[in-house]
């Protein structure tokens, strides 16, 4: 097992399920580190903390929509673990629905959670790193849809596009302090992100997609993510063949749009 995480404190948001939970369990296998587990659902975090018996695991419930509390969250994290070395900024919410039918308040909620909350927490953690001369890492979990968009996913894609726009600039601002910011874009991973997605009126979709169900396991994703973290790569796609769409969009845009209009569902 790698010694990279030895004695490090790793803070994982969105830890109650999916990618966050998978990463916590993977780090538990490695051992010799401390985890701070964050999400809205305290009881699920407590269950996960009990599963992570090979490491020190602290529970810090938070709601990314309430992003004005970011500095307070950092203070609480330090009270629990004493320091922060790596933030895996993973929490987010999905969306599915026609744009013209989607309520403004639903779009605002998605942007608050996926963009404003993410950014506010990263800034608060970076201030801590700088004040304490810590060469920390922030791992931002975006999406392959941060590189393009699809029908009925416009708001979700917009929130992930925004992360790219922000962090590609912010990364260079904090680099002089020895802070590394990494953007990771998953493809289809076996999580509940589609199941928990918001419909145009803000209700929970409660329906998963076949692509999500057939996607990469969270265990495999966690192993690949760990390699990205260790190598301090500035950007990485992790997923199956679907991540090729990002390259098609960049290098063969006409072909990309042809495929999208031919195969992506229409409404």
UniProtKB/TrEMBL annotation:
Keywords: Oxidoreductase. The keyword Membrane does not apply. GO terms for cellular component: membrane. The keyword Oxidoreductase applies. GO terms for molecular function: oxidoreductase activity. Belongs to the short-chain dehydrogenases/reductases (SDR) family. This is Short-subunit dehydrogenase.
